[in-house]
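I am writing to request your help with a piece of structural work I have in hand. What I wish to show you is a protein chain and, alongside it, a tokenised description of its three-dimensional fold. Could you please explain, in whatever detail you think fit, how the structure tokens follow from the sequence? You will find the record immediately after this paragraph.
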Amino acid sequence: MSGYRPSIGLEVHAELQTQSKMFCACPVVDSTSAPPNTAVCEVCTGMPGTLPVVNQRAIEFALRVALALDCTPLPVSLFARKNYFYPDLPKGYQISQYEFPLAVDGRLVIPLAEGQKTVRIRRVHLEEDTGKLLHVDGATLIDYNRSGVPLLEVVTEPDLESLEEVRAYSIALRRLLRYLDVNSGDMEKGVIRFEANVSVRPSEDAPLGKRTEVKNLNSFRSMLRAVAFEIDRQSALLASGQPVLQETLGWDDRHGVTLPQRGKEEAHDYRYFPEPDLPPLVLDGAWVDQVRRTLPELPTARFERFQQAYGLSPAQSRLLTDEPATAAYFEAACAAAPGLSPAELAHWITGELFALLNERGIPIEACPLPPPTLAALLGLHQAGRINLPTAKHLLADLFDHGGDPIQLVEQRGLVQLSDPEAIDRLVIEVEQAHPAQVSQYLAGKTGIEQWLLGQVMRAASGKADPQLVRQRLRARLAELEKNRPPL
């Protein structure tokens, strides 16, 4: 509702794609396809007498994210027990970080229609994931395969003020996690989950209002719908003189409403205390510097470089750098044929190639068309050896069956017909075969020119240069009109 300004903070939980779990040697498996309870042991199911051991690779992955977000790593961080009882939490507590997290005070710059905005990152910390509840035929089953998987939590300040900003931040963070190769970004499998803290206030100068937390939002669509609903709900309450209660809410995606789950907990409700079985986590400064040096080129830097180095538009650069595999494909194709226009190559990748990938349901990582093959095909088109329709037809053929575009063009006789005299002969053949249509054109029905052009292209078996055909056809029609006897 108008008159109230939203303030939104996001807590993003991302599973780290390590080989083993956070505190034990159990493998990390796909919780959507692996047989239930097959990747479990005494440690991740909380059996008495077991001791957790920290996964160094998980610490490294989390540190990569923290550094990429320009956070300050704390020299010493602590794991703590977060006590609450739920069926998917076998120990009755979760090992997490609270008072001394891994890193603090970061930022993420997000693109918006009107420019850019910096979103402050309050903290980045590590914890273990919970199990998974399955509701089947009135019964609730528990799969502990996911229990103990390393879980990274990135918490923002309440800096987001619109649905556009919420969406832009979420997409930017997901892209960053994929660039760092610490998370697949596959939201359908629940490897990224959102929690939104939402409040509204009457003006920018007013203090922040009471916030509600909407839990476990597993898609951008659900998150945006839930945040929009909560903004409207809270605004309506305040407009009618009713208070907003600080509480934890669930999102009913079917009915499009938030539902109360429990009063919003404070830290003391979880009875945090240091995990007695784990010593403080001390980060060696030299190791932190080493991890920093291994960071890849980040999405924003690559987006800006593609515009400067290749002369691409912001829209092309955004499409090509959205996924690291797409950016790598583009640069491999550029390297294979330095003489090609980068803008033309970008146009083909984001147009024709993307269409084929979508039709076949293939991700760019598994693209069967190698970048040098695409570059060779476009080189033939740029050199005028094949026309545009032939290039598009060959692209699909090479995508599905492979091969060498140069050899295919020679073997199938697909070299473009660019001889003006030969095209003039084809134009005259069409003129003589379709006198009625030519007469209609000369009588003023100029739209029939496109049909006549198609007939010439058909007579050339689709191999003629379309621009040259149009030029010679128009010249012949102009000649006929000039020599037409007066009425």
Observations:
- The CA atoms of residues 357 and 363 lie 6 Å apart.
- The chain has a mean pLDDT of 90.
- The chain has three domains: 5-292, 299-411, 420-483.
- The two ends are 71 Å apart (CA to CA).
